[in-house]
Amino acid sequence: MNKALGVDLRMKPTDGNNYLTIVPTMTSAQKLPDWIQLPAWWNSGFNTGGLAGTQLADLTPYLAGDRIKKYPNLAAIPSGAWQAGAWGNKIYGIPSYSSRCVVSGTTFYRRDILSAKGIGADQIKSADDLFTQGKELTDAKRGIRAFDDVWTYLFPFWGVPNKWKVQDGKLLNKYETQEFLEALNWHHKLAKSGSVHRDALAGQEVSAATRFYAQKVLLSGGGTGAWTLTDQQSGSAADKNYRRGALDVFAADGTSRPNLFLGNSTGVLSYLNKRLGKDQIEELLAVADYLAAPYGSAEYTMVNYGVEGIHHTMVKGVPTFTDAGKKYVQPQTYSFLASSPQVISNPGADQMTKDFAAWQATNAKYLYKPVFWNMNISLPASLATADAAQSVEDTIKDCCHGKQTVAAWKSSGDRLKRWLTTNVLEKYGTGQ
Question: In terms of C-beta density within 10 A (0-12 exposed, 13-18 middle, 19 or more buried), how is residue 161 classed?
Fold first, then answer.
């Protein structure tokens, strides 16, 4: 890779489980590396907005307007993804894994098993349909429960917003909506129905995939990133007929128009260190441009599959890893710094690729931009905890697992709402 890039790029992969602890330590000591990946879902923990311009380089002079033409692969990245890495109306983040159509997650089901029973995703058109189907699929004597945990990606089907909605010109938090309470009540009822696996109710998330592969659960919530070649290989190892499917978007009441909020155009961004000189920044942007080369190009193949004849061979026109490739090329570290817009490609698993693409095509018409879409908001420290709402989320989980009644639920956050109204909504609008 260094020979291909023409630079000496020394990578230092880090354990993602400890990343949120490691990075603030580095920033407090002002010892960030030249180039670092900072996922957007931890912006508050990293204080990325505070680092922008103080420790992270402003890339606007290099990339704004016609200057992006120097880096054609970076120019091909969707505008929304660049917006997700902007702070104070300046460009800081370099996007990876970008897309114009991001759905964070969905409710998956064992398509092979449900199809054998004559059940298709198009037959589930309401929350009542899903509840009834779950009762029928549960076979307690054989240790089979219909559901794993499904709350995280199913609650939007009640019309609950991602976080905020604007009603009569005023911000309303999702926790304050009637739709949220209805969704919470349904999930509490589900937990008490006997259709949810006991390990899921106990919060054992780590073993969720194993339960799904072993047919101990037939429906499970998860990120769309789970729909991969690795998943197909793992599932097929447990059951040669394994096939993942996903429920189509539906309205919980069965009569309203279904809708689902878009995720940000990317959540994976990298940043350059402010201490770098102009020549160094331009050199690393040239590296980023190489890493962002389009799918199928020689550069893309090099980044993702390594050197032909050493790390991969071409089998029917498809790059296929050798043992050396499996050892040295994966995980794909470089793509966390910069990468081309996402494609659905799973060599050797054509049916899975078709299933995922068909699901996206079917459900794209239901997607909408949520309030503050792709907007980075740096909250005062006193409000960051309220925004994270961890104690609220803990109560939600307890309700969904049947440990607390919905009556235990309460919502707050007026200070946060006032701050966002004054500093964001009134100045910049909704971002929709």
Answer: buried
Cα gap 6→358, rounded to integer Å: 40
Per DSSP, what are the bridge partners of residue 108? 220, 246
Whole-structure pTM value: 0.84
What is the spatial distance between Cα 311 and Cα 329, in angstroms, rounded to a whole number? 7
Residue 137: is it exposed, middle or buried by C-beta count within 10 angstroms (0-12/13-18/19+)? Answer: buried
Q: What are the backbone dihedrals phi and psi of residue 72, each rounded to the nearest 5 degrees, phi first?
A: -60, -30
The predicted pLDDT at position 101 comes to: 86
Total residue count of the chain as it appears in this document: 432
State the greatest distance between any 2 C-alpha atoms of the chain, in Å, as a whole number: 68
CA distance 330 to 293: 18
Q: How far apart are CA 430 and CA 372, in angstroms?
A: 5
**Structural contact between residues 116 and 288, judged by C-beta atoms closer than 8 angstroms:** no
Buried b (16+ CB within 10 A) or exposed e, 243-254: bbbbbbbbbbee
Provide the token pair at 402: 């049947």
CB 236 within 8 A of CB 230: no
Q: Which two tokens stand for residue 429?
A: 């609008």
The DSSP 8-state label assigned to residue 196 in this structure reads: B
Dihedral sign of CA atoms 108, 110, 115, 118 in order: negative
The helix/strand/coil state of 137 is helix
The H or E element containing residue 23 is: helix 19-28
Dump pLDDT digits (tens) for 378-430: 888 778 777 777 778 888 888 899 988 887 766 656 888 999 999 999 999 99
